[in-house]
Design goal:
mainly alpha, about 150 residues
Length: about 150
């Protein structure tokens, strides 16, 4: 499975991303509207689904069953659907540049990861990995200025 290692690397990046966001989520020095809290729930749902997909892939090791692929595909689709539902105004409130990085790196990486599930391709997998890494790098450089409401 040539694309298997790339897929695993992509979801490892997503799992890392989730861990990074946990720290930021404990900051709540902003007032959050019901609509913003709804967006945060979409955001956290996307993170949760990606974490679960990553867990399945990592547990599968070198052998990726049809059932596991179906579960990972469903979780990735759900993560992408939730990421798309996160309101741009919410993202801008989290950090002035968060929208740019969330949509352009994180969400695009999810789209590529989803595409790679159906059509494994090392170039697509590498692109997704690079985008996830870029998002994590940006996040780490700006972590003190990123404000997320707590998960509900």
């Amino acid at each position: 499975m040539k694309g298997r290692h790339s897929l695993s690397a992509i979801f490892c990046q997503v799992a890392l991303l989730f861990v990074l966001f946990i720290g930021a989520c404990q900051k709540d020095d902003h007032v959050w509207s019901p609509e913003e809290l709804k967006s945060s729930n979409y955001f956290y749902s996307a993170q949760r689904d990606n974490r679960e997909a990553s867990r399945i892939i990592n547990r599968a090791g070198e052998v990726f069953s049809i059932d596991e692929k179906q579960k990972v595909t469903k979780l990735t689709e759900s993560a992408l659907e939730n990421a798309r539902k996160v309101d741009d105004n919410f993202l801008s409130k989290v950090h002035p540049e968060f929208k740019k990085h969330f949509r352009g790196e994180f969400q695009t990486a999810l789209e590529l990861a989803r595409k790679n599930l159906d059509h494994p391709d090392s170039k697509t997998a590498r692109s997704a990995e690079e985008l996830f890494s870029a998002f994590v790098d940006w996040y780490n450089a700006n972590r003190d200025d990123i404000h997320m409401p707590p998960a509900y």
